[in-house]
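Sequence in, structure out. Go.
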Amino acid sequence: INGLSSLILSDQAGKCQPQCVNIPFIYKKLRVSGQELASQERGNGVSKLILGARIHRHGGLDQVVVEEFPVASPGAGEVLVRLHAAALNHLDLFVLAGIPGIDMPLPHVLGADGAGVVQEIGAGVQGWAPGDEVVLNPGLWCGRCEYCLRGDQSMCPRYRLLGEHVDGTFAQAIVVPAVNLHRKPERLDWHQAAAFPLSTLTAWRMLVTRAGLRPGQTVLIHGIGGGVSLVSMQIALAVGARVLVTSSSDRKLERARRMGASECWNYNTVEVAREVRRATDKRGVDVVVDNVGEATFATSIEACARGGCIVTCGVTSGPQLPVDGRRVFWKHVTIMGSTMGAEDDFRSMLRAVASGSVTPVIDRVFPLQDTAAALEHLRVGEQFGKIVIELS
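Output:
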């Protein structure tokens, strides 16, 4: 705990200078079908047949099809990664249903998280070689705008995500920019390696970079059991904070208690804001992690201490937040939005995972052929930890 606290505080005090790489994002769309990576001569290059899960139109789970399609060889600045595993996020359900304002080409490969082995490198790629074991940063950025140049890649106006704006990781291979590769921590198996990038990066930026969480502070986390909420608890505990959690599942609350949460409340049976006041001697919490939205935001404001903050990365229950402005200004509450994270955030988060301060929790592993069943498991919301797709 002390080591991670020191790491976080030193990162906050002096950010390393970002090494921004100006690489055009020319993505070769995945289109056609094979259970083994096989080569096909195609015009000016070689494409490889892979198996993956994609959709041809938006809708329900019946639109998810596991089929063969080709992935092209990597271009300049790109790398072909043979994926061993991928992991689910609520984003995949949103993409399946269709996200207003995002017009993605169809058919489309789902999935933002993945881990695997470098199979082929494109021209100009340095520092990587076939056989290297890697995890993927799911975020894509331009490398040229003011935000990228100052190291805030996730604020890039052209910021995109694998599996949302371009084809994703629910496939045997993927072509990505080389700047999106990071060394796989040796202590993790492939399922764990695929499970942590998106949720852990998101939680790290929310708590460490944005909220500036410090040892001795108190954190309220809504909806324990989901990927971001669960890893937020691990990060907060590793920093040395006191953690309070909520869920509608007593089973999940008991598991959270065993992992170190000091207070665990079923929001269907208690008034959470009142319990927070009781547990904190009426003071409230320093930080609220709220990725639920409509259903919890009023409680989040009530639960905040004076000068506290709410940090949010999602609105799974709906986007219309009930905000009583009087309570916000009277209590000096800060509301922070946060999306994914910068490369500095990813590197700091990766060190915490590699050191064992944060360990990905796996709920269940599904074979690629059962991707629709995995998405249904996520939709029902009974998971505690990450749901993984086996691709090897």
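Check: Residues 147 and 156 are 6 Å apart (CA to CA). The chain is about 30% helix and 25% strand.
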